[in-house]
Design brief:
single chain, globular, 2 strands, two-stranded antiparallel sheet, mainly alpha, Glycosyltransferase, 18 helices
Length: 491
């Protein structure tokens, strides 16, 4: 029991605390804050100042104080760090989009693996500038008749319009890759008849729109052109690569085929390096024309010109005409050549060899029709009768069968182009005959084997170690490129 003296004091204290409980809580809170604050001040003074502070919130470290300048040091050369760029091998040739561009029109890459293209170094700035501008030239600078070569879209549209099949384009690609694989180190093709076979191979690449700027085939095209340019210059424009003599029949064939290739090449690339040689080579053809309008072995000037020899000279001259170089004598020589074809045409529409009474009237009929249409650009009586003869004889006496004893690859090369130019039901029928026959007889390696018959081209084309594989493969490729290589057009 509490004493009376303490009771009033305790009651008074309790009453006073109860009345001031908010004040008491505030007092205790302030005491705690003062103690904590004092501790923080003591701790801060015991620690060294920081070297930097983080500011902002963007992760960038910035200086917070001004540093005391360092004591002067002896002057030294400041060190610099130079990053080393990775060494990347850059191709010397600008890439075209074909394949020219060369993205294939169809999914050919899935069927035939694409080998890695080798890099071919260029030696002059002129060549480099030429290759850098090829894409533009190929698309915008081609004559209308060659527009189908401009790239994947143009090629696909032409094939669809003219009845080309996907397997045909695959066969072309396989054939071109075989040519790449079998090109000589110096850029030529074959071990015999090099000039003619190199011309044929280049024509096959150009027919697909391939130039030195093409991603896959560019190096091969460039090496082939460089070889022709070097060797042709050495022989002063004689692309048969002979001095003082044309080498008879083979010489005039080789010269015309190689000239044909140079003409197409210039039209597609505008490569000024070849202009002088092309003009020289073309002049030999113009000057070698016989009085009757045709051409003969060794560019002789006697009567009765050779229809087969004349055919290649006309193709070369038409290619020269399309260059736009206005080479002297080309157009007048082509006008005169039409007289010779008319001279050798038979009454049944076929064409003879040196007269209208010799030959079988089949193998050279395509020559007469194609060359006449190529230049005149119309379907006159000579052309119509020739087409009728081709179709009738193919149906009755010379079946378009690769292994047949009358198979004639040389004739088919001309017939294919002649029928496409003529168009209509003639082309529909011929396309149905030849396309599958050529594609289905391609060898697994991409080349074409000998046909069943002894067709034009010489017995050498049947020999395994000679020019035969290059001759047959190039002709077959050119036939399968017919859908876009030269489109029907007027003069």
């Amino acid at each position: 029991m509490e004493s009376p003296q303490n009771e009033p004091f305790m009651k008074k204290l309790q009453a006073k605390l109860a009345a001031s409980r908010f004040f008491t809580f505030s007092l205790l809170l302030h005491v705690v804050l003062v103690v904590l604050g004092g501790s923080a001040v003591l701790f801060h003074q015991m620690q060294p100042p920081p070297d930097f502070t983080a500011e902002g919130g963007d992760g960038i470290i910035q200086d917070s104080t001004v540093a005391t300048p360092p004591e002067p040091q002896p002057e030294t050369q400041p060190q610099q760090f130079t990053p080393v760029a990775p060494q990347v091998s850059q191709p010397q040739l600008a890439a075209l989009t074909t394949t020219n561009t060369s993205t294939p029109t169809f999914q050919v890459a899935a069927a035939v693996p694409v080998p890695k293209a080798t890099t071919v170094s260029t030696t002059t700035s002129a060549v480099q500038n030429m290759t850098q501008n090829l894409s533009k030239n190929l698309g915008a600078g081609l004559p209308a008749t060659m527009a189908g070569r401009a790239g994947g879209t143009a090629r696909m549209a032409a094939m669809q319009k003219m009845g080309g099949k996907e397997k045909s384009e695959k066969a072309v690609m396989a054939g071109l890759r075989w040519l790449v694989k079998n090109q000589n180190p110096d850029g030529s093709w074959s071990t015999t008849e090099k000039s003619a076979m190199t011309g044929f191979a280049i024509l096959a690449f150009l027919g697909h729109g391939e130039t030195p700027a093409s991603p896959e085939f560019g190096p091969s095209v460039k090496k082939g052109i460089d070889w022709l340019l070097e060797r042709g210059t050495e022989f002063q424009g004689r692309l048969s690569l002979t001095k003082g003599s044309w080498g008879g029949g083979p010489g005039v064939y080789a010269h015309a085929i190689a000239t044909y290739a140079l003409g197409e090449y210039y039209t597609m690339t505008k490569d000024d390096r070849v202009v002088d040689l092309l003009k020289q080579a073309t002049k030999y053809i113009v000057d070698g024309q016989a009085p009757d309008g045709g051409w003969q072995y060794s560019y002789a000037k006697g009567p009765d010109s050779d229809t087969s020899v004349s055919g290649w000279q006309v193709q070369a001259l038409k290619a020269a005409h399309l260059t736009g170089l206005n080479i002297e004598g080309v157009d007048s020589a082509l006008d005169k050549a039409m007289l010779n074809f008319k001279r050798v045409q038979r009454k049944d529409g076929g064409f003879g060899y040196r007269k209208n009474t010799d030959g079988n009237g089949y193998s050279l009929t395509g020559v007469g029709v194609l060359c006449t249409y190529f230049w005149k650009g119309n379907k006159d009586e000579l052309v119509r009768d020739g087409i009728k003869n081709i179709l009738e004889k193919s149906e009755k006496a010379f079946p378009v069968q690769y292994k047949n004893e009358k198979a004639d690859l040389y004739a088919w090369y001309y017939h294919t182009q002649a029928c496409l130019m003529f168009g209509g039901s003639a082309w529909t029928k011929w396309n149905r005959w030849f396309q599958d026959e050529i594609v289905d007889n391609q060898s697994p390696d991409g080349s074409w084997p000998p046909v069943g018959g002894k067709s034009a081209g010489g017995e050498g084309q049947r020999e395994p170690g000679g020019y035969g594989p290059f001759y047959r493969t190039s002709l077959a490729i050119l036939m399968l490129e017919v859908y876009y290589r030269y489109m029907p057009t007027t003069k």
